[in-house]
Design goal:
Keywords: Membrane, Transmembrane, Transmembrane helix. Pfam families: PepSY_TM. InterPro entries: PepSY-ass_TM. This protein is of the alpha+beta class. The protein folds into two domains: 215 residues; 200 residues, no CATH class. It is built from 14 helices and eight strands. Helix 5 packs across helix 7 and helix 13 runs antiparallel to helix 14.
């Protein structure tokens, strides 16, 4: 007599994934569509910026560039009494020099940018500049739309919520795809589009393969987007600091106390928006305008920009795209930092004593910890600057694909229903079939995630509690 077949193991994980994927998709879907469309717009804003602000960014003069002293003096004469925050010399012939000034009415990380023709000293434009990437108003507007819907700090919760749950939806979707692709009966439905399939099956045949193709991009955008978030971003920053994964910053103190401000790590995330700077070595005998006595004392005279840039060039700052920042307070060094974030990345920085022109500190990208380099590349890839136009087009395509996958998800939900009513949510109570240790493991993961990524963890815990309570209610009360 044949031995009885062992009882089948209860299936709970796939139904749990299905319910999580469906509920999360329905609730988070509008946020994902908004963050995807605004992200696609932001990715394309860099080439649009070059077209919209062509007058400000291009210099018609074909003459040899004037000393930076003359260019800075022209900008400050035009703008009136304003402190110079930074100068980005023209990176190549035909580009303007950008002199960034402090001013009233500017927001956080904003400066007033005066665009100067380096050959003639003509003022080509006067625009607000945002962040270390030097975003102009169009790109700044799309950046703020993507980050916070123009609602300030409160609006950042929307993007954190979307970025956090994008990864959850993607992981659950991958799990469902693997489960169905392993079964011969459902493999064809999730591995290729089926144009002749009826209704929901046809939509699923597009939704599932597209989601899997886009999954890596979803996870990447989710992980890198979280670094800018309000709550999870602070945890990521603390973790990187604890593990020494941060980029080194140059120390601008000149008295040996190490109390000066630095430049380096903050540039990785300030502004969600790279236009660059840099001219060749300067002839230090042609300083143009400037008080030579004041220059020798290291005061903030226009001629000091030429001297400091020349010293930085001799110290190995070779990128054509650089930013020169004068001393923030008396007794501190000037900083010259490369801002070329395309690959190969050039973001070396040196701190220079303006009186002696000695390099007092430096931070080279080659010396960054590996994780700091990966963070730099990840941020630039997310923003579309690492590989230029190709990078921007790919990010825009992935973002639009994410929006399309969300829309097909809603279509499938509607197709499960009848008439004008959407379909039912997958059945509750999947965890009732799970062994107790699995329930504890899932809850423990949710708690651990919740401590680090609050928007994910709190939602997961709420999902588990509601699912367990609802599963124990009488059927008619569910």
């Amino acid at each position: 007599m044949p031995s009885p077949r062992p009882p089948a193991r209860p299936r709970w994980f796939v139904p749990l994934l299905l319910r999580l994927h469906t509920l999360a998709g329905i609730v988070v879907g509008p946020f994902l569509i908004m963050v995807a469309l605004s992200g696609a717009l932001y990715a394309l804003s860099t080439p649009l910026e070059r077209a919209v602000y062509a007058h400000e960014l291009t210099a018609p003069s074909a003459r040899a560039p004037l000393p930076l002293a003359d260019q800075v003096a022209a900008a400050t004469a035009y703008a009136g009494e304003s402190d110079v925050v930074a100068v980005r010399p023209a990176p190549s012939p035909g580009d303007t020099t950008r002199v960034m000034l402090a001013g009233d009415g500017l927001g956080e990380s904003e400066s007033r940018g005066i665009f100067v023709d380096p050959g003639s000293g003509e003022i080509r434009g006067d625009l607000t500049v945002y962040g270390t990437s030097g975003a102009l108003p169009l790109r700044t507007w799309t950046d703020q739309l993507h980050r916070n819907l123009h609602l300030g700090e409160a609006g950042r919760l929307y993007s954190e919520f979307a970025a956090s749950w994008l990864g959850v939806v993607a992981v659950a979707g991958i799990g469902l795809w693997i489960a169905r692709a392993r079964r011969p009966a459902t493999r064809a439905a999730v591995t290729r589009p089926r144009l002749r399939a009826p209704g929901r099956r046809r939509t699923l045949s597009w939704h599932a393969p597209a989601g899997v193709v886009l999954a890596l991009g979803m996870l990447f955008l989710s992980a890198t987007g979280i670094t800018w978030s309000a709550h999870a971003g602070a945890n990521v920053t603390a973790l990187r600091g604890a593990l020494d994964w941060t980029a080194p910053a140059v120390d601008t103190a000149l008295d040996g106390t190490g109390s000066g401000s630095g430049a380096g790590e903050h540039a990785a995330h300030e502004g969600h928006a790279g236009h660059g700077a840099g001219m060749g070595d300067m002839d230090m005998s042609s300083m143009g305008m400037g008080d030579m006595a004041g220059m020798d004392r290291g005061e903030d005279s226009p001629a000091t920009y030429d001297r400091v840039l020349a010293a930085a060039r001799q110290a190995g700052i070779g990128s054509t795209q650089v930013e020169i920042r004068p001393s923030e307070t008396p007794g501190t060094a000037w900083v010259v930092q490369e801002i070329h974030r395309s690959y190969p990345t050039q973001v070396d920085a040196v701190a220079i004593d303006p009186a002696t022109l000695e390099v007092v500190d430096r931070a080279d990208f080659a010396d960054y910890p590996l994780m700091a380099k990966l963070a730099r590349w990840g941020v630039d890839l997310h923003m579309g600057t690492l590989f230029g136009l190709v990078n921007q087009l790919v990010v825009a395509a992935v973002a639009l694909g994410i929006a399309g996958v969300v829309v097909t998800g809603y279509v499938m939900w509607w197709q499960r229903g009848r008439g004008s009513r959407p379909g039912r949510i997958p059945a509750r109570g999947a965890l009732r079939a799970a062994p107790w240790w699995s329930v504890l493991a899932v809850a423990a993961v949710a708690v651990a995630i919740g401590l680090f990524l609050p928007m994910i963890g709190l939602g997961l815990l709420a999902f588990l509690v509601v699912d367990q309570v609802a599963a124990r209610l009488p059927r008619g009360a569910r």
